[in-house]
Design goal:
Blueprint (H helix, E strand, L loop, with lengths): L1 H14 L7 H11 L4 H14 L5 H20 L21 H8 L1 H4 L6 H17 L3 E5 L10 E7 L2 E6 L7 H4 L6 H5 L11 H9 L5 H5 L5 E4 L12 E17 L2 E13 L17 E13 L6 H9 L6 E7 L1 E2 L5 E4 L2 E5 L3 H9 L2 E4 L8 H13 L10 H6 L5 H9 L4 H29 L4 H12 L13 H9 L6 H14 L6 E6 L5 H14 L3 E5 L3 H16 L10 E4 L5 H13 L4 E4 L13 E6 L7 H26 L11 E6 L5 H8 L3 E5 L10 E6 L2 H16 L3 E5 L15 H11 L5 E4 L5 H13 L4 E4 L12 E6 L7 H8 L10 E6 L5 H9 L3 H11 L22 H21 L7 H10 L8
Parallel strand pairs: 7-10, 13-18, 13-19, 14-16, 14-17, 15-16, 17-18, 20-25, 21-23, 21-24, 22-23, 24-25
Antiparallel strand pairs: 1-2, 2-3, 4-12, 5-6, 5-8, 6-7, 8-11, 9-10
Bound molecules: adenosine-5'-triphosphate.
Catalytic activity: Couples ATP hydrolysis with the unwinding of duplex DNA by translocating in the 3'-5' direction; ATP + H2O = ADP + phosphate + H(+)
GO biological process, one term: DNA recombination
Protein name: DNA 3'-5' helicase
Amino acid sequence: MRFNGLLLCNISKYISPSKHRLTKNVFNIVDSYGRSSRWNRRKLFTKVSPAMCHDGFDEQLDQEKYYFDASLVRNQFPSIILGQSSPVELYDGISDDPDTDSILTSDSSMGSTVVDPSMLFDSLGSVAHEFNSFSSYEIESISDQGSPGPTTSPSVTQNGKSFTKQNKEKSDPQCVVDDPTAPFELVLDKPISCVPAISKKKCSQLESCGFHTIRKLLGHFPRTYADLQNAQITINDGQYLIFIGKVISSRGIKASCSLSFLEVIVGCEVAESGSASACTVSEKNNGSKRTIFLHLKKFFRGTRFTYQPFLYSLQEKQKAGDIVCVSGKVRSMRTKDHYEIREYSLDIIRDDDDESACAEGRPYPIYPSKGGLNPKLLGDIIASVLDALPPDIDPIPKNILHMFGLKSLRDAYIGIHQPTNFNEADLARKRIIFDEFFYLQLGRLFQMLEGVGTRIEKDGLLDKYRNPVTNAVVAEEWCPLTKQFLKALPYSLTSSQLSAVSEIIWDLKRQVPMNRLLQGDVGCGKTVVAFLACMEVIGSGYQAAFMVPTELLAIQHHDLLLNLLENVEDVPCKPSVALLTGSTPAKKARLIREGLQSGEIAMVIGTHSLIADKVEFSSLRIAVIDEQHRFGVIQRGRFNSKLYCNSLTSRLVENTSNGNAKGEISMAPHVLAMTATPIPRTLALALYGDMSLTQITDLPPGRKSIDTFAVEGNETGFEKVYQMMREELDSGGRVYIVYPIIDQSEQLPQLRGASADLEVISNRFEGISCGLLHGRMKSDEKDEALRRFRSGETQILLSTQVIEIGVDVPEASMMIVMNAERFGIAQLHQLRGRVGRGARKSKCVLLSSTASGLPRLEVLAKSSDGFHLANMDLLSRGPGDLLGRKQSGHLPEFPVARLEIDGNILQEAHLAALTILSESHNLEEFPALKAELSMRQPLSFLGD
Ligand SMILES: Nc1ncnc2c1ncn2[C@@H]1O[C@H](COP(=O)(O)OP(=O)(O)OP(=O)(O)O)[C@@H](O)[C@H]1O
């Protein structure tokens, strides 16, 4: 340690005065650091870098982080061997790899004369790259360099072929990307600086926006495509549309001393309704076209936004005459053919190239902006990268591409960034999606195979994935606590609830952690199934954790469980159940944590507070995650691993104290995730790989269908609805009124707010008590509001969407949704699921502020099938995010794929992964695939 410290102090002395005179000493020192810690080497690089006037070391340090990540990947895939030679652990401090040594010390390579530091960098880089790309390169030789001028880098071979790696600074980039034998990692994972036609300035601009590598840049897909030839023909209110048009005026206006706005008016030529003829902005008006005017408005509140220079700079961003692509939700104005768009995006597309694209009728890619980079510039840079891309960068074998009708990776990149027509863009998208799914599947299955011993067992496992089977434990074999709990329920389980519990309990009895998804439509009774699973675990002497997305739900589940446990008889002692949320007072929370750690508390229900570092369990055996899609990937992942670690450490302490080690000490808790999102069984199996799926397919008996009405929210409409409400209340029913916002807003006067409407409704329904519930209320106020509604003290509950998830008041028999057009179909289905949970016939009224919103709502009036509605929801969503990152919010996050529509590709990807692994269990025969798999870290997708 002391020696290392001394060295660090002296290193600059060695090298700074005469720069390279003592380089041999330096490299001897570097060599000795080969065996020191990563931290010390970081320090060393920092010192060497300025001393040797080499500015590449910062990047080297950046890359160091990157490699560090790669080693994490390696931990996830222990069987991935980094190349055929032993892995080169440049920064790990324990490597004795001779190749590294030879670079660092060999006289023949460095010579005893002047050494170009950039060469050192390159040499290190190439070794590091070997590490990075997990390929089998051998460093052949490092030739002496003359400086200045472009230096030749070490010659590296892969599979007998050699190529030259160029000097980092003064490279001829073409030689990297043009070399068709260069392995794909060396191209896609090359720094962006290697791309021809990208200046240093642009390069640093790109890097500061996160585009460090070619892969990153090519992965920046267009958000959507605009059809420059055909403007939209039919325009409905509230529709998300894309237009091409010409800016007529752009004005920044000061409306008051603290309010200003930008108004851009764009004129667009569209075909007359019924005319399918194409039109472009450059064409003159004729009988079949008309011009519509889009008023794009952005408001700014605050005095500082009213200054003229600010407003001027805003209005100058687009000038009259600019050809622009505008997208956003249109709202018709009073004057015919005038529309307003408030949340819009605007891209200026006028330039020579674009006009030629327009003339050719190509889809025009619209890029999402990133870090303030001009999307147009980004598009141009991507085009340069595509030009320089070698043909063979595809890790997926050709026979697989052929089998599933896929484009090659290079063609896919070209097709997605520069499609000649929409069909090509679609095919390219398919390939990109295939990759997303494929590496996820491959990673999961690969990891599963790693845990299995012999070849026969591995084949057996793959067979199991081709033909999954289910197992169950019959109720007679459940533990006494579970049986008593079942007996104490005020109803009998439906047959699919019963088989769900049996399936889950079969898993719980195994010494392998369960990873199961329980899926069932709203109100089908998933909670009680999860409770029974928890009882089975508690009955065997372990603990259970139940995590839900909202406090309201946590309280509800906690109360329900306590009520159910009260009726449980004939058990030696009833399990103690705690509630832990963000609002639990500090002292109480500490006591609960202590109880969990000591094992006194058998079950805890709570929000994400359960995954806080401080919470430790004595013997956690099951973690239930309700509405799992509501938790982010990281939260879910943390939950799994955290619980594992905590239970492990806690048990270790226990065991060292009593010396009684149990076999299952290192077992992770079983995980039961629950969702109401409809996922077809085959899709879920393919998607989750090792995650088993249990579905509840029936509803509790006696449930009546909910009568649903879509009504226009005009005066007559409201009168009608109030009348229906009155009848419902008079006959003893309870009513939810759901609002899109809490307070009335000046900017959105058409929206009704829950808080603002309380007085209106109370006045209207005199003698009937009304409650209010929204997200800004304190936890105990929310709890109280719901308690009063549940007990019947209030008969009308005015609420925001906070009730959407899980709220269960069986006596609620009517729901009115204000401004229902503002909600998604799937969301309305969830909301509607809050009524019709008891024996009483229920109604749901969807009030739309405009007549044009009614047809979409009618879909709900006609169907109560979650699957059908999820599809309709998808179709009704605009084209805006087809290639975007925005997900439905229900399913795991994929950058491009949308599970609801891309399910068939997922299944193909699943098949492809099975085919590949059947051929080579450890992927030895597919080194490129193996490397790509490691780069992608597919397991992080689902938060494992
Ligand atoms: N077998 C059954 N018979 C009668 N009622 C039942 C049965 N199972 C559950 N219930 C009741 O049905 C209602 C809905 O159950 P639960 O809240 O578990 O549904 P869920 O599937 O979690 O719904 P959501 O997705 O809306 O949260 C509850 O009031 C519950 O008591």
